[in-house]
Amino acid sequence: MFKKKKSDLIKTDSKIKNIQSELYKDIEEVIDNYPKNVLFRDLLAFLVLPVLCFQYKYPRTKRIRKFFVFKYLSEFLICILAIFFISWQYMLPIVTNSMKFMDKDDYFNLIERILKLAIPNVYVWILMFFAFFHSWLNLLAELNRFADRTFYKDWWNSLYLDEYWRTWNLVNLLVTFLIILAYSLLVDKTHLQSP
Q1: Domains in the chain: how many in total?
Q2: Same structural domain for residues 96 and 118?
Q3: Could you point out which of 9, 40, 61, 67 has its C-alpha 20 to 30 Å from the C-alpha of 160?
Q4: Distances from the Cα of 91 to the Cα of 61, 80, 86, 103, angstroms
């Protein structure tokens, strides 16, 4: 078991070193041109693109595919309408009916009403995830010709909670940036050697 983990560490270390070498090339180019290369359009692109880490070069597609723009926009609007429908049709009546039990201090019926919210709440949560992480981010990516479309992995197949938290919201640039930064700082400061 330990050997498997050590081999995984070695693979991870080699991936990190490859990413570091590519990153250092880009950093040298950026540092050489520093004040002149930060433009207002770069800030606007960073604000509009579905990313959390600023870069000077983002992966781009060649064109905007109109079919996918229509598809993601319609998915997003349908999800928002379904969320409003579920909220108004199922959740709001339960909440308003539970107010009379709060006034009477009838906690048994109040807990029953709150538990009736569980199923609609799960539907709303899944619809919000799909609307934001799938439809909205892909719509933004398509409109901006952003090529990296990995916003989440298959979190629904997670067996453990830690696996779920690693896969439900995946932003590769942030994770890669933090791993490289944290790894580089630890190795440089502690003078540790790679496995």
Answers
A1: 2
A2: yes
A3: 9
A4: 42, 15, 7, 19
Of 22, 50, 57, the closest CA to residue 172 belongs to: 50
pTM for the model: 0.64
Report in angstroms the alpha-carbon separations of 153 from 8, 45, 61, 111, 147.
Answer: 20, 25, 21, 35, 16
Block means of pLDDT (10 residues each) for the chain, 195 residues, are 52 66 64 69 79 73 92 96 95 86 80 88 93 89 83 77 71 60 63 52
Per the structure, the complete domain to which residue 100 belongs is given by 31-151
pLDDT at 96: 87
Same domain, 81 and 62: yes
Cα–chain-centroid distance for residue 57?
20
Does 16 fall in a domain?
no
Cα 141 from chain centroid (whole Å): 13
Q: Which of 34, 80, 78 is nearest to 56 (CA)?
A: 34
**Sole residue written with tokens 């330990």:** 2
Helix (H) or strand (E) holding 120: helix 118-129
Residue type, 95: V
